[in-house]
């Protein structure tokens, strides 16, 4: 396991999060913002889609979403157990998830006494129109919102109505300078949740950080970040990306620009 700790504001682990979470302190995190494997790798391969041929970086072939159903459920069960311990009372969870797996996640979260708040939709405005004459274009993913040990947590809506639907473009190339990740989330999407559900100096945890999107946004918004990633290539990319954000923040601040 590799661990990098930058002034306790950013702590990154190249390791299995199910092991690493056990080392984190109780009541130390304000928001878990994460995008775990959706348990779709085998499902998509079994359906013999031709996606792989059409897409160099098809995530179903990346190797990190290949658990059997029961094994995946067990891993999510351990995840909820650990995040219920590390989250503060009334801390929030936003978990992205395939819509066909939402019910399983709601059940697992309830087992660990999370209070269910919302199932929302992320709509991608410009997905690749693969097989557009054969079926509906896949342009949505789900997200779930839970509260730990309480019913309401930080919710900075400032009197505005916030819908359970968020729309962005797919991740732009400008956010992929440090390497390509097949399911990299756009920064604007994570910014929406970090602004709404945390305050400055709070701590955000992403146990499945991939390319480090949650870390980049957390840093930019003045939050601390703990991230974990199993694959060394993604971890190295995330480390470079997040530390580059940290450096540009320091440079910006010293030149008086925010
Ligand atoms: C859906 S991707 C996350 C993408 C990320 N939100 C981004 O914007 O780049 C899930 C990531 O979890 C990682 N992963 C899978 N199992 C893991 C585990 N047990 N511990 C840590 N990371 C894991 C995968 O390697 C993959 O990069």
Question: Layout of SSEs?
Answer:
Elements: E1 2-6, E2 10-14, H1 17-20, E3 29-34, H2 41-46, H3 51-54, H4 69-86, E4 87-97, H5 102-111, E5 114-124, E6 140-148, E7 165-168, H6 187-197, E8 203-206, H7 213-220, E9 224-228, H8 232-254
Helix pairs in contact: 4-5, 6-7, 7-8
The protein binds S-adenosylmethionine (SAM).
What does this protein look like?
The chain is an alpha/beta fold and 258 residues long. Helices cover 33% and strands 23% of the residues. The chain has one domain (2-254): Vaccinia Virus protein VP39 (Rossmann fold), CATH 3.40.50.150. It has 8 helices and 9 strands. The chain has a 9-stranded mixed β-sheet with strand order 1-2-9-8-3-4-6-5-7. It binds S-adenosylmethionine. S-adenosylmethionine binds at residues 16-18, 35, 37, 64, 181, 183-185, 208, 210-211, 213, 228-231, 234.
The CATH class turns out to be: Alpha Beta
The portion of residues assigned to helices is 25-40%
Total DSSP E strands: 9
Instruction: Tell me which ligands are bound.
Output: S-adenosylmethionine
Strand arrangement, major sheet: 1-2-9-8-3-4-6-5-7
Gyration radius from CA atoms, angstroms: 18 Å
Portion of residues in beta strands equals 15-25%
Q: State the fourth-level CATH superfamily.
A: Vaccinia Virus protein VP39
Gap from first CA to last CA: 35 Å
Order of helices and strands: EEHEHHHEHEEEHEHEH
The low-confidence runs, each spanning 5 or more residues with pLDDT under 50, are: 53-57
CATH architecture: 3-Layer(aba) Sandwich
Specify the biggest β-sheet.
Answer: 9 strands, mixed
Give the overall silhouette: globular
């Amino acid at each position: 396991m590799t661990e990098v700790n930058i002034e306790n504001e950013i702590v990154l682990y190249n390791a299995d999060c199910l092991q690493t979470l056990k080392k984190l302190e109780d009541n130390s995190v304000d928001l878990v913002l994460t995008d775990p494997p959706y348990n779709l790798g085998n499902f998509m391969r079994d359906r013999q889609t031709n996606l792989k041929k059409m897409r160099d970086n098809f995530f179903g072939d990346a190797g990190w979403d290949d658990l059997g159903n029961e094994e995946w459920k067990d891993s999510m069960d351990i995840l909820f157990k650990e995040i219920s311990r590390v989250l503060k009372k009334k801390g929030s969870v936003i978990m992205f998830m395939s819509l066909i797996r939402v019910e399983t996640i709601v059940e697992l979260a309830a087992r660990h006494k999370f209070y269910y708040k919302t199932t929302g939709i992320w709509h991608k405005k410009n997905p690749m129109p693969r097989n557009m004459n054969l079926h509906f274009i896949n342009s949505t993913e789900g997200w779930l919102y839970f509260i730990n040990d309480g019913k309401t947590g930080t919710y900075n809506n400032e009197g505005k109505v916030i819908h359970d639907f968020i729309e962005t473009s797919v991740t732009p190339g400008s956010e992929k300078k440090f390497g390509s990740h097949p399911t990299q989330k756009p920064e604007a999407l994570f910014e929406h949740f970090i602004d709404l559900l945390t305050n400055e100096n709070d701590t955000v945890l992403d146990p499945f950080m991939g390319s480090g999107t949650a870390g980049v946004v957390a840093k930019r918004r003045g939050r601390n970040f703990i991230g974990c990633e199993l694959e060394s290539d993604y971890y190295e990319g995330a480390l470079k990306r997040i530390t580059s954000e940290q450096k540009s923040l320091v440079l910006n601040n010293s030149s008086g620009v925010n």
